[in-house]
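Hey, weird one. I pasted the Phytanoyl-CoA dioxygenase sequence into the form twice and got a warning about non-standard characters only the second time. First submission, copied straight from the form history:
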Amino acid sequence: MGITGSLTPDQLELFHSQGYLVIESFASEDEIRDLRKRMNELLNQFDCSVSSIFSTKNQQHTTDNYFFESAQKISFFFEEKAFGDDGELKQPKELSINKVGHALHELDPVYKEFTYSSKVSSLVSSLGYRRPVVMQSMYIFKQPGIGGEVVPHQDNSFVYTDPPSCTGLWMALEDSTTVNGCLWAIPGSHKNGLVRRFVRGENGVTYDRPSPSYDQRDFVPIEMKAGSMIAFHGDLIHQSFENLSQKSRHAYSLHVVESDGCKWAKDNWMQREKMPEPLYVLP
């Protein structure tokens, strides 16, 4: 049976013009509950002594073997502000984690079932993929009071193929608002192409050029209800601010690339022994 795209012509036009598209009620209440419940189980099993800190501001300094090995594992990354001066967590571990990644969609049956569902495949098919591969998955917490800022960036910087083919899929598991750190984007910025890459070399990882400066007045907030999905072009400039509120902002995020005619870059931070199983393969 072939894969039928789920997006309408008007939705596709909007995606191509502004670089992103919000699809409301993408996930059911039951699916949201199951994803969140499973993450609670994973957190309960998690050994705090084996982990790392995640930061988009200082990633070059916090990247270590734990980070590199997470490409093929389920790994846990703390918020920068989770620890006190004494090096101990300031709150319970479940309120201290920044994200869990990057192979949830391959190694955990609950996340795999959702990722490889017909609704995800249909969405990706609408965007023109023939042999799409989910290269990484992340459960993002945006913790109350300490949820870290994600600086302006493009996903193609980190998940690069030749030619570029990344699409981000970001699903709200809780309402995402300007109060608790929703996504912000510059509409149409994907039309300007990729501005820099995050590359891996003999001495670790680094950006191949400085970040451009952005006018914050160009960004628009993307508030979303729980269960809504946003698809965004790999060259779209987007960011999120710190969560200074008392409400978390959980989300499940996937990064899809094309494996038909596109080559995975050998200097991406993420390197694997083999590519993941494709979502589907068109004849």
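That's the output from the first submission. The warning seems to come from a hidden character in my clipboard, not from the data itself. DSSP finds seven helices and 16 strands in the chain.
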